[in-house]
Structure formats: structure tokens, C-alpha cells
Amino acid sequence: MMVMAPGANTALGAAQCSWTLECGNPSAFGDYAAVALLPLDDKRHPKGEAALFQVSQAWMQWSGGQEKICCNLNLGQLPTGADRVLLVVYTFSAMGPVSDLRLLRLQIDSQIEFNLNLSDNGESAIIVGEFYCRNHQWKFRALAEGSAYGLAALGRRIGLKIDDAHPHRRSSSSEQSRPASGATGTGFAVTSTHILTCAHVIEDMKEIHIASFEGRHRAEAVVVDQRNDLALLRVQGAPAFKPVAFRDGVGCDLGEPVVALGFPLAGLAGGGVHVTQGGVSALFGLHNDSSLLQFTAPIQPGSSGSPLFDAAGSVVGMVTSTIPDAQNMNFAVKAGLALAFLDACGVEPTRTPTGRTFSTSQMAREAQQSLWKIEARNP
Fold first, then answer.
1. Which range has highest mean pLDDT (28-32, 263-267, 294-298)?
2. What ranges does the record give for the region Disordered, renumbered to this chain (predicted)?
3. Given this model, what pLDDT does residue 324 score?
């Protein structure tokens, strides 16, 4: 039996395979949580309907029960254009974290095993792995990519509408059955009246506020780009913000030091801005996604939307996601993409000339007035 770690991949014996999935909480599947298969292309664009738990498709068949989910998968029969399938474990209607499942144990063809500890995972959905084709060979890659706001939110980000409510508790809309909920994140001023943050922080939330030691104000979403996880907020009736400055022209260098400033774990870690340091560890995101860069400055829930600064105090990215079980494998939307988004919104942010170098403490003092905690909720 080959035992895999997150990020590892291995070849499958054939396009037809079977797998089983067990968790550390034998009553969770079917009651609190479930499994979905998402057929996609190599750009993670949807190609056909998701296979939700106990609803089979032409290319797969569910079996098993609550204690052990089983699946027969015919990868050669995927919808036209699909060359991969994401295996996702999620909680119904994002009602809670996957940590209640404690542990996942995936076995493929009784030859491959992947164990994933979820005990400290606060996400509501997690991509366990993907079956994919490369050079006419089907393979499996072990992953641990989380989605804080559940399967439906993950689907919207890739352009796929998914009803993640419990099949026996669905109303006409899964959104209507969602419990009142809230989320926090970080945002930063890009003009005197506009804040930039992550789309997933405010997703499906009816009320948005920004807060800092400067005060608390109501905000409204102006433009939301779910695919690139960007959201522009407008705040009226507040004193003029101090906007950050973006790096102009060139992108980051591999190994370049960066600083993340934000409001992680709001309400637990204190109300002020937190500072972490690291470096640019890769110039691509997962699957060679050129819209993202990878960095090592530690982040936590609530860091989403934090600006990533270079040594000159210029924004080079915006924190968007992490891989929970990996060591500081964090991702940020590149400044170039954020600038293109703001340009499309008719917003002209400041772009800095480089040349001056700040210490981390100087940078934190300079930027603090531009940073805001995002508080989003459904009343």
C-alpha cells in the first residue's frame, strides 16, 4: 500500500478505478457532511454537473453507507472537455467545520492510501485530491485545499452552481436554508472611499462593516469578481481613507522578502493589526495559476484580504488562501491582477516610485491607517 502526503501524485492502473472514504466520526457522512465529485478541465473550469453524495452520474456510481463511502469511477467517460475530477468533502450548507470529521482515510484500488488529519481544520469544505490525466496517463494527486464558506462557495468561484444543502432538508433554495452566519477578513484602502478585499469574505452576506481603531462604518460591495477572489467596497460618510500604494510595473522576484499586515483570528488574537514576515516562495499558484504568487509569511483565518508589502512599502499582492496542512504554503492575488480589476472598476489607485526602503516596524506604522477589519454577516 502506497501512503501519500499532501502534494504527492501517483499513476493509476487504469481509467476505471474504485475508492473508499472513511472518517473518524462514523455518523458524520450523510448527516452532517458529504462528498462531491467535480468534473473540470485543466484550468479548473466546470465541465458537466457535480456528482453529489448518493446522486450518481454516467461516469461514476456511489455505493457503501454512512461509515464507509464507496465509489466506482470511470474516468474515460467524463463529460466532454473534462480531464480531471476534484474529490471534495464538505459540510451541508457550510453548517460547521470539517474538523468534526476528525480524520479522513482515502483508499484507491486497495493500493493507494491518503490520510488527512482534520482536527484543527476550520474550513467548511476541503478538496481531498484530484484524479487527472496527463500524457494519456490517469493519475491521482493528494491535496488539502480548504474552502472556508463551503462547497457552494467553492463552486461559485469556479463557475459551477451547487446546492450543498442536505438532500432531505432542501427548500427551493439552499441559500434560504442557510443559518445566519458571519465572517471576518481584512481589507485595505485603495482610494479615499474604496476598500479592496477578498470576494469570499463577503460572499452571501447581507451586511458589511469595516472597523479599526479609527472607527466602524457601513460598507457596500461595488464590484465582486468571484473567479479571481476580488471585491471592491465603497464606504460613504467616513473620513477620507489613506490609500496604500501599489508597486508599479514589475512583479515580484523569487525569494523577495514580503510582509503581511491584517486582522487574523479577529476576536481571539486581539483587535489590532498583526504583522508577519516571509518571502516569495513561488511565482505561480497551484496548477501553474499565474494569477497568484506563493509566499511564506504565516497567515490565519481572517487574513484573507490582507495586503502583501515589499521592502519599499508597496503592495505586491493580496492574501487569498492557504493549504491548511502544508507548511506556510500561502497564496496571494498578484498586484498586477488587482490593478487590472481596479482599472476595470474605474478606480485609480496610487502607484509608488520605488527607491525607499522601510523597516518592518516603519511599514506597519505607515500602513496601519490604511487597514480595516471586514465584518460581514447575515442579520
1. 294-298
2. 165-186
3. 62
Ramachandran sector of residue 301 (left: φ over 0; alpha: ψ -120 to 50; beta: rest): beta
3-state SS, residue 260: strand
CB 133 within 8 A of CB 84: yes
- Residue 248 is classified by DSSP as P
The CATH 2.40.10.10 domain(s) of the chain lie at: 245-352
Residue 267 confidence (pLDDT): 54
CATH topology for the 245-352 domain: Thrombin, subunit H (2.40.10)
Cα separation of 34 and 197, whole Å?
Answer: 30
What are the b/e assignments for 203-229, b being 16+ CB within 10 Å?
Answer: bbbeebebbbeeeebebebebbbeebb
pLDDT higher than threshold 50 for residue 294: yes
Task: Give the architecture (CATH level 2) of 2-176.
Answer: Sandwich (2.60)
Under 8 Å CB-to-CB from 304, ≥6 apart: which residues?
148, 185, 186, 197, 198, 200, 201, 319, 320, 321
136's CB contacts (< 8 A; 6+ apart) are: none
Mean predicted lDDT score pLDDT of the chain? 88
What span, in angstroms and rounded, lies between the C-alpha atoms of 278 and 294? Answer: 10
Whether the per-residue pLDDT at 182 is higher than 80: the answer is no
Rg of the chain, C-alpha, whole Å: 21
What values do phi and psi take at 271, rounded to 5? Answer: -90, -10
pLDDT in tens, 83-120: 999 999 999 888 788 988 999 999 999 999 999 999 88
For CATH 2.60.60.30, list the domain ranges present in the chain. 2-176
CA atoms within 13 A on the CB side of 33: 31
